[in-house]
Amino acid sequence: MKTVNIKLSTIEDIRLLVDSATACTFDIELTSGSYTIDAKSIMGIFGLDLSKPVALTAFGDEPDILIDKIASIIISE
Predict the structure, then answer these.
(1) Nearest to 70 by CA among 36, 3, 60
(2) Which residue has the higher pLDDT, 60 or 46?
(3) Alpha-carbon distance values, 4 to 7, 29, 71 (Å)
(4) Which phi and psi angles does 63 have, rounded to 5°?
(5) Which of 19, 35, 48, 71 is deepest in the core (most CB within 10 A)?
(6) What is the pLDDT of residues 7-51, one digit of tens each?
(7) Residue 1 and residue 19: Cα distance in Å, rounded?
(8) What is the DSSP letter of 40?
């Protein structure tokens, strides 16, 4: 399991995240405040407050595969 903070500023950022998450076989969650959603759900992402960073948690044996794909939207580790 690995958690990083990400910033989704544009539609392209959201598309990058969803495409990268969908390619993974393990679960990935986004948490904003008290809300947690599946990172593979584009509709769920639009329900979050995207004006602030969100926490991404990847549950799997090799979360670095995902982390490498979304490096451009990670704001801190």
Answers:
(1) 3
(2) 46
(3) 10, 11, 10
(4) -70, -20
(5) 48
(6) 999 999 999 999 999 999 999 999 999 999 999 999 999 999 999
(7) 20
(8) T
Is residue 61 very low, low, confident or very high in pLDDT (cuts 50, 70, 90)? confident
Q: What is the pTM (predicted TM-score) of this model?
A: 0.92
Backbone phi and psi for residue 76, each to the nearest 5 degrees, phi listed first = -165, 155
- Which residue carries 């490498």 as its tokens? 68
Paired residues of 54 in beta bridges: 6
Residues 6+ apart with CB under 8 A from 55: 3, 4, 5, 6, 30, 31, 32
Give mean pLDDT, residues 48-61. 94
Q: Which of 74, 60, 71, 76 is nearest to 24 (CA)?
A: 60
CA distances from 32 to 5, 54, 66, 77 (A): 10, 5, 19, 16
Length of the chain (residues): 77
